[in-house]
């Protein structure tokens, strides 16, 4: 295995993309059953989630994060499954905060437990949070989350997070014929409250969500619909690798974002590695293969050896699934979204 050059940070993959972000799934479990992610027919009562002894322990988890940071990672996103189901989520955030070199920590949550946990997250040092919410309509949202969970309670969670001083972004996955009628009402609602709403194109993640291109609402159409009611203008991206394309409501500083993985793939600037709750490294959201870091770590490897190992995996990375999905479908089953987070 080649030893990586200590001075060449961040490390780069085979297509010249730096390693800048780490998305950590802290659990594969969730209290929702969103049809586009964990449909009840697949993730029913008999589904076998990861057992406790297969999960990274807190010290292992911190050690791996530290090693990723030493390779160039600056931004960490904690996701899941549903990360707020973890009792020690505050401790996890505090641990990451103490790692030198981490410039940004965010959490992605379905918001169901946010009202209760907002203070703990803030006290742990979290500054920003992304809440997923697909509709303000109780009937549609109840069906979409598969558990009849009220949108009202997610909105209360968002209010609680904002009152604690957390900066809140909201993600809405838009599906044709399911919730596309909610695009403009959602835009108005979150504009009024000063939170950035990001529209996410429905993606073919995993193998169980019956994805079909016909159900994708292209970001271009979303912009047109909003623009008719509230004129928009494009905004420059903040930094290399920014996932969302940004638009501003004309005459104001209020923004929306669009995550157009299907119609405007952004693999060329993809700087994200993903770590599952059992310590598997995935170099793409649509990966069919993984690297078992837990196993390597439990073999007794030193930090330096682990660094070289991870650098080697990243150095060989050539993933660009979103750019090729329509011409080269995945050859093998892909990892599930709930296993590695968004
Ligand atoms: N449970 C948390 C939540 O829902 O925010 C975190 C994990 S969830 C897998 C992360 C993000 O992925 C959510 O914003 C969710 O809406 C999004 N997501 C899940 N399946 C998707 C799909 N098929 N297409 C697009 N986004 C998806
Ligand atoms: Fe759970 Fe998030 Fe997947 Fe919905 S999108 S089922 S909330 S992990
Ligand atoms: Fe990154 Fe893979 Fe998504 Fe392309 S398809 S942007 S490589 S995660």
From TrEMBL:
<keyword id="KW-0342">GTP-binding</keyword>
<dbReference type="Pfam" id="PF04055">
    <property type="entry name" value="Radical_SAM"/>
</dbReference>
<keyword id="KW-0456">Lyase</keyword>
<comment type="function">
    <text>Catalyzes the cyclization of GTP to (8S)-3',8-cyclo-7,8-dihydroguanosine 5'-triphosphate.</text>
</comment>
<feature type="binding site">
    <location>
        <position position="77"/>
    </location>
    <ligand>
        <name>GTP</name>
    </ligand>
</feature>
<feature type="binding site">
    <location>
        <position position="81"/>
    </location>
    <ligand>
        <name>S-adenosyl-L-methionine</name>
    </ligand>
</feature>
<feature type="binding site">
    <location>
        <position position="284"/>
    </location>
    <ligand>
        <name>[4Fe-4S] cluster 2</name>
    </ligand>
</feature>
<protein>
    <recommendedName>
        <fullName>GTP 3',8-cyclase</fullName>
        <ecNumber>4.1.99.22</ecNumber>
    </recommendedName>
</protein>
<dbReference type="InterPro" id="IPR050105">
    <property type="entry name" value="MoCo_biosynth_MoaA/MoaC"/>
</dbReference>
<feature type="binding site">
    <location>
        <position position="203"/>
    </location>
    <ligand>
        <name>S-adenosyl-L-methionine</name>
    </ligand>
</feature>
<feature type="binding site">
    <location>
        <position position="270"/>
    </location>
    <ligand>
        <name>[4Fe-4S] cluster 2</name>
    </ligand>
</feature>
<feature type="binding site">
    <location>
        <position position="30"/>
    </location>
    <ligand>
        <name>[4Fe-4S] cluster 1</name>
    </ligand>
</feature>
<keyword id="KW-0547">Nucleotide-binding</keyword>
<dbReference type="InterPro" id="IPR007197">
    <property type="entry name" value="rSAM"/>
</dbReference>
<dbReference type="InterPro" id="IPR006638">
    <property type="entry name" value="Elp3/MiaA/NifB-like_rSAM"/>
</dbReference>
<feature type="binding site">
    <location>
        <position position="108"/>
    </location>
    <ligand>
        <name>GTP</name>
    </ligand>
</feature>
<keyword id="KW-0479">Metal-binding</keyword>
<comment type="similarity">
    <text>Belongs to the radical SAM superfamily. MoaA family.</text>
</comment>
<dbReference type="InterPro" id="IPR013785">
    <property type="entry name" value="Aldolase_TIM"/>
</dbReference>
<dbReference type="InterPro" id="IPR040064">
    <property type="entry name" value="MoaA-like"/>
</dbReference>
<comment type="subunit">
    <text>Monomer and homodimer.</text>
</comment>
<keyword id="KW-0949">S-adenosyl-L-methionine</keyword>
<dbReference type="GO" id="GO:0051539">
    <property type="term" value="F:4 iron, 4 sulfur cluster binding"/>
</dbReference>
<dbReference type="GO" id="GO:0005525">
    <property type="term" value="F:GTP binding"/>
</dbReference>
<dbReference type="GO" id="GO:1904047">
    <property type="term" value="F:S-adenosyl-L-methionine binding"/>
</dbReference>
<feature type="binding site">
    <location>
        <begin position="272"/>
        <end position="274"/>
    </location>
    <ligand>
        <name>GTP</name>
    </ligand>
</feature>
<keyword id="KW-0408">Iron</keyword>
<feature type="binding site">
    <location>
        <position position="23"/>
    </location>
    <ligand>
        <name>GTP</name>
    </ligand>
</feature>
<dbReference type="InterPro" id="IPR010505">
    <property type="entry name" value="MoaA_twitch"/>
</dbReference>
<keyword id="KW-0004">4Fe-4S</keyword>
<dbReference type="GO" id="GO:0006777">
    <property type="term" value="P:Mo-molybdopterin cofactor biosynthetic process"/>
</dbReference>
<feature type="binding site">
    <location>
        <position position="169"/>
    </location>
    <ligand>
        <name>GTP</name>
    </ligand>
</feature>
<dbReference type="GO" id="GO:0061798">
    <property type="term" value="F:GTP 3',8'-cyclase activity"/>
</dbReference>
<dbReference type="InterPro" id="IPR013483">
    <property type="entry name" value="MoaA"/>
</dbReference>
<feature type="binding site">
    <location>
        <position position="132"/>
    </location>
    <ligand>
        <name>S-adenosyl-L-methionine</name>
    </ligand>
</feature>
<keyword id="KW-0501">Molybdenum cofactor biosynthesis</keyword>
<dbReference type="GO" id="GO:0046872">
    <property type="term" value="F:metal ion binding"/>
</dbReference>
<comment type="pathway">
    <text>Cofactor biosynthesis; molybdopterin biosynthesis.</text>
</comment>
<dbReference type="InterPro" id="IPR058240">
    <property type="entry name" value="rSAM_sf"/>
</dbReference>
<dbReference type="GO" id="GO:0061799">
    <property type="term" value="F:cyclic pyranopterin monophosphate synthase activity"/>
</dbReference>
<feature type="binding site">
    <location>
        <position position="34"/>
    </location>
    <ligand>
        <name>[4Fe-4S] cluster 1</name>
    </ligand>
</feature>
<feature type="domain" description="Radical SAM core">
    <location>
        <begin position="14"/>
        <end position="233"/>
    </location>
</feature>
């Amino acid at each position: 295995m080649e030893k990586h050059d200590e001075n060449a940070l961040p490390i780069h993959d085979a297509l010249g993309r730096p390693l800048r972000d780490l998305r950590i799934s802290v659990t594969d479990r969730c209290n929702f059953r969103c049809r586009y992610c964990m449909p009840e027919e697949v993730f029913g009562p008999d589904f076998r989630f990861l057992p406790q002894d297969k999960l990274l322990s807190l010290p292992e988890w911190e050690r791996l994060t530290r090693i990723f940071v030493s390779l160039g990672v600056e931004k960490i996103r904690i996701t899941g499954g549903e990360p707020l189901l973890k009792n020690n989520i505050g401790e996890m955030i505090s641990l990451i905060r103490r790692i030198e070199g981490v410039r940004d920590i965010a959490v992605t949550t379905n918001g169901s437990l946010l009202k209760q946990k907002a203070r703990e997250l803030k006290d742990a040092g979290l500054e920003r949070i992304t809440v997923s919410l697909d509709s303000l309509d109780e009937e549609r949202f109840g069906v979409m989350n598969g558990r009849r969970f009220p949108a009202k309670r997610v909105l209360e969670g968002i209010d609680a997070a904002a009152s604690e001083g957390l900066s809140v972004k909201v993600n809405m996955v838009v599906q044709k014929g399911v919730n596309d009628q909610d695009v403009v009402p959602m835009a108005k609602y979150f504009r009024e409250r000063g939170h950035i709403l990001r529209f996410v194109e429905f993606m073919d993640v995993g193998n169980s969500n019956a994805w079909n291109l016909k159900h994708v609402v292209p970001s271009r159409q979303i912009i047109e619909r909003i623009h008719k009611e509230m004129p928009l203008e494009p905004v420059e991206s903040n930094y290399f690798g920014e996932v969302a394309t940004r638009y501003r409501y004309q005459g104001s500083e209020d923004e929306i974002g669009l995550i157009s993985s299907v119609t405007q793939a952004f693999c060329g600037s993809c700087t994200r590695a993903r770590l599952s709750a059992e310590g598997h490294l995935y170099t793409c959201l649509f990966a069919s293969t993984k690297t078992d870091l837990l196993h390597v770590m439990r073999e007794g490897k030193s930090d330096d050896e682990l660094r070289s190992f991870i650098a080697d995996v990243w150095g060989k990375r050539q993933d660009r699934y979103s750019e090729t999905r329509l011409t080269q479908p995945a050859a093998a089953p892909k990892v599930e979204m709930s296993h590695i987070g968004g």
